[in-house]
Amino acid sequence: MKIVQAIKKGNEPIVLQNPGRLKEPLVLVFGNRYLLEDDGLYNEIRALFPEGHIVFGTTSGEIIDDNVLEGTVVLTAIEFEKSKILVKRCNVKDYKHDDKKLGANLAAQFPKDNLKHLFVISEGSTVNGSALIEGIEHLNSNNFGLSGGLCGDDDRFERTLASYNENPKEGEIVAIGFYGDTLEISSANYGGWTTFGPERIITKSKGNILFELDGKPALDLYKTYLGEKANELPKSALLYPLSVKATEDAEPLVRTIINIDEVESTMTLAGDIPEGSRVQLMMSSVDDIANGAYHAAELAMQNRKAAPELALLISCVGRKLVMDQRTEEEIEEVKAVIGDSTVISGFYSYGEMAPFGGQDSCKLHNQTMTLTLFSE
Predict the structure, then answer these.
(1) Is 120 helix (H, G, I), strand (E, B) or coil?
(2) What three-state secondary structure class fits 173?
(3) Domain residues of the chain, as ranges?
(4) What is the pLDDT of residue 142?
(5) String of b and e for 291-304 (b: at least 16 CB within 10 Å)?
(6) What whole-number distance in Å separates Cα of residue 330 and Cα of residue 323?
(7) Which residues form the FIST C-domain domain (predicted)?
(8) In the prediction, which pLDDT does 148 show?
């Protein structure tokens, strides 16, 4: 595996840190939405990597090595020497926002023979991440791994962009398939948040839209808890996500709000929130989040045969808001576990995709640190 990285700031040209010709590399470009709206960026990267499979995604912060950046573009180009990749894309508008169908059709484009893993970079403004994952895994008879994340737009929640081999645009969902006998790919996630306050029942919801808690308008109830911070919704909701437990035996999932409807008094969350689920508010601290990142890395490293050569980190924008000037501490905690020789890239997101530790089925998470580790 050969890897080249670069950072682009503003209008400055991209300068590769360790230049060298790569054969048909996967080029991951994570960056600030305003920079990815520049039509010249794609051409600049295409000139650097004429044979590259270029995948874009907007962020709420960029990760490279143990640094967390803002207002930049980070580029990671990977040549797999013993393995192959295949990249496919779909757009939500072509499926009338039937995200499960989109996921199923996206997965169907990948030959399943020797498919080890799908890594998904999805638009993050409107997609129901739970339905998308359900569609992708619908016919997963080969038990390939699945991880990835929803693109971000800082804490603006205006629009997110992604693309494959073209200028970034809205509504895109890109999947990267990894094939090869020598590939070892592991993924895991962990949060570090704790519940507080009374437990309530979801009495009315549809997909990822929450209407009522305990028979009362959900948004009104949530605003009561937030107090003055309600004026900053949906940004302020990132500090107080919801723990959602669908059944008594189910693992609780963390859900954050990505949009609100003042007229209907509803909240749109990043993933499903089934009726009858029990929910509680959650909160966290800097130390808890850093410890959660360390534990996520431990889970990703469990039972690995080879040291990881590449780590793709996707962490939630809500964690970044809590960590503030100490955000890099959670990346440092990850690096302490996976080792200094592992190349690190990634971004802060509106949602993370990964299985729970020890499980195969992927879930949509919020407020977690998610790692996908690669070696050949």
Answers:
(1) strand
(2) strand
(3) 2-190+287-375, 194-282
(4) 60
(5) bbbbbbbbbbbeee
(6) 9
(7) 218-356
(8) 98
What is the distance, to the nearest Å, from the Cα of residue 76 to the centroid of all Cα atoms in its chain? Answer: 17
pLDDT digits 0-9 by tens, 126-136: 899 999 999 99
* Residue for token pair 């000139």: 47
Q: How many CB atoms lie within 10 A of CB 290?
A: 23
d(CA 147, CA 132): 12
Q: What mean pLDDT comes out for the span 237-262?
A: 88
How distant, in Å, are the alpha carbons of 77, 222, 354 from that of 24?
Answer: 9, 49, 27
Q: Exposed/middle/buried for 131, CB within 10 Å: 0-12, 13-18, 19+?
A: buried
**DSSP string across 233-297:** TTGGGGGS-EEEESSTTSPPEEE-EEEEETTTTEEEESS---TT-EEEEEE--HHHHHHHHHHHH
Q: Is the pTM of this model over 0.70?
A: yes
- Number of Cβ atoms within 10 Å of the Cβ of 158: 8
What strands lie across the sheet with 343-349, from one edge to the other? 67-69, 62-64, 343-349, 310-316, 369-375, 184-190
